[in-house]
Amino acid sequence: MPIALITGITGQDGSYLAEQLLAKGYTVHGMIRRASNFNTQRIEHLFNDPEIYNQRLFLHHGDLTDSSNLNRLLEKIGPNEIYNLAAQSHVKVSFEVPEYTAEVDGLGTLRFLDSIKEVGLEKRARFYQASTSELFGLVQEVPQTEKTPFYPRSPYGVAKLYGYWIVVNYRESYGLHASNGILFNHESPRRGETFVTRKITRAAGRIREGMQEHVALGNLGAQRDWGYAPEYTEMMWRMLQQEQPGDYVCATQETHTVREFCEHSFAAVDMPLTFEGEGENEVGRDEKGIVRVKVNPNYYRPAEVELLIGNPEKARRELGWQPKVTFAELVQIMAKADWDLAKKEKLLAA
Description:
Layout: E1 3-7, H1 12-23, E2 27-32, H2 44-47, E3 57-61, H3 67-77, E4 81-84, H4 91-96, H5 98-118, E5 126-132, H6 155-174, E6 177-183, E7 186-187, H7 196-208, E8 215-217, E9 223-224, E10 227-228, H8 229-240, E11 247-250, E12 256-257, H9 258-268, E13 274-276, E14 283-285, E15 291-295, H10 313-319, H11 327-349
Parallel strand pairs: 1-2, 1-4, 2-3, 4-5, 5-6, 6-11, 7-10, 8-15
Antiparallel strand pairs: 9-12, 13-14, 14-15
Helix pairs in contact: 1-8, 3-5, 5-6, 7-9, 7-11, 9-11
């Protein structure tokens, strides 16, 4: 029975990956940070299943800033596959906590790779690193491929760039089976509510139920390549099943604006929007003319990433992977889930 270790198991990707690996017959170990409050909502259904928790799923306290802790976990667990999904992953927040972002997202990856080598797992364990389309930042070509030059535009992107290259370095220097998944934006109803997609779908449901007046966003014209998270975690697994490690773009090769995401989200809750104005004065109005979407310049990034669109041809060719859920279907899934959530909240508040 293969053994997997997932950092960031309580996040969106970690929770889907844990489900998928358990379904494939894995024993799954997850690393979680110690906190005053439990943050296990996304894996609560696994956590509360006595046939899974402490039988095939095990949780351990740990942190990517603690090398000795990583060493102990690797020695104790002896994993065949390691998925490093833990990160300070919010781009806007990375401008406010750049040093912490670098410690976790950059040096944390180095600590992990070095721990694998130090405990003697370099010939046994396969390592997946969660890289990001934010590496491309100020894009140098359209669409972006594995060969596109990087130009990150945030402390998050720069930290992840170090993580990317240290994976390549350890792979070439020590023979580690270590791979980078350059994942473009991927979403689901489990996405954190501070991320723009979930912020929009949450707001759409709450506005539709009369629990919120409007939502304030940043750059409505920013274009992103959005996919469905469970499909992307499946690709992570496929990468580690390859005989040789490598780096792969994971994307849909379609791009849509934040404005389009708003339009689809509000349409999904039977509240179509019409946008008017430009820049900071742009608004989205419902059929009654009430403003439901506003622009707040405070949400602008110091250095904006205007366009991201990936070409996953290498993943199609070598991994047999390609996305199936369309952009419209993705937004529908998220908006419907958050509308149901708003209805439940309204009922509980009554």
